[in-house]
Design goal:
It contains nine helices and 16 strands. It is of the alpha/beta class. It has a single domain, classed as 3-Layer(aba) Sandwich (Carbamate kinase), CATH 3.40.1160. Strands 5-10-2-1-13-15-16-14 form an eight-stranded mixed β-sheet, with helices on both faces. The protein has a two-stranded antiparallel ribbon with strand order 3-4. A hairpin with a 2-residue loop joins β3 and β4.
């Protein structure tokens, strides 16, 4: 039986056996850090995966919190075509808010739950090698996104060493360029890490229940193939943040990640229900 208490041991046992020692990359949207109760529901689920022998790797963003700090400190918030322009002043806020406040709080909660971590303060971002994004033309406009990085390489030896040593890497949306840290899209970091580790699963948690066919749908699409996901993108059925998630999901599946899941991080026990039950609770995406 599945409910607020999560899957039963007898239901979860076959999945635990199947996924033991496999990497599971879990990406949390920054909006999930707004409410303490939401994060406090997610941390015990990560701890359960860890104790069951899975190898979680965590990635988180913090876009809303960056905007709030910029507004508080009168730092200009500038975006083009829905994407943030990261000035040097904004980058400092990214480092303080995402690398410091959010990442530190997340690591502390995990440590208190018995999960040893390797976070930003301990240098985990060194594993993400980036280049500064060059100016690009978008819809006829030349756009320089500033201190924004695109992932070139993931140094997996760091992640494997952490995992072998019993530590869970906790990545903020920050990578390292030739001249220092850069702001990097969290979905992209999660996808690139999952590919580099040949992860069994990439799980994306946000406020929504999964991939929705339309705003009036009763619930998320339970299963998608890569072909069906591409059709949703090309036909404009999914937009904005969900479109970006599906693009990264397709990139991960093309790069040998076995499965991608898009689920709610707000509802109880969604992480355990999606991984350890037949029916799941969000959207499961697989190769066609």
């Amino acid at each position: 039986m599945v409910g607020d208490l999560g899957p039963s041991l007898s239901e979860a046992a076959p999945y635990i056996q199947s996924f033991r020692d496999q990497f599971v990359v879990i990406k949390l949207g920054g909006e999930l850090f707004d409410q303490g109760s939401t994060l406090e529901r997610i941390v015990p689920q990560v701890a359960t995966l860890y104790r069951c022998g899975l190898r979680p790797v965590l990635v988180h963003g913090g876009g809303k919190q960056i905007d709030e700090r910029c507004a508080k400190e009168a730092v200009a918030i500038e975006k083009r075509h829905g994407r943030r322009i990261t000035s040097p002043a904004v980058l400092e806020i990214v480092l303080e808010v995402v690398g410091g406040d959010i990442n530190g709080r997340f690591c502390q909660l995990l440590e208190e739950a018995g999960v040893p971590t390797h976070g930003f303060a301990a240098g985990v971002a060194e594993a993400i090698h980036c280049r500064r994004r060059p100016p690009v033309e978008i819809e006829g406009e030349q756009v320089d996104f500033g201190e924004v990085g695109d992932v070139l390489e993931v140094h997996t030896e760091t992640l494997v060493r952490d995992s072998d040593g019993g530590k869970v890497p906790v990545f903020p949306s920050i990578g390292m360029g030739e001249n220092g840290p850069l702001n990097v899209n969290a979905d992209s970091i999660a996808s690139k890490i999952a590919v580099a580790l040949r992860a069994q699963k990439l799980v994306m948690l946000s406020r929504v229940a999964g991939v929705m066919e339309d705003l009036n749908a009763d619930g998320p699409i339970s299963q998608l193939t890569t072909v069906e996901a591409r059709e949703l993108i090309d036909e404009g059925i999914v937009e904005g943040g969900m479109r970006a998630k599906l693009e990264e999901a397709l990139s991960a599946l093309t790069g040998a990640v076995a499965e991608v899941h898009v689920i709610s991080g707000v509802q109880p026990q969604t992480l355990l229900r999606e991984i350890f039950t037949d029916e799941g609770c969000g959207t499961w995406i697989r190769r066609a």
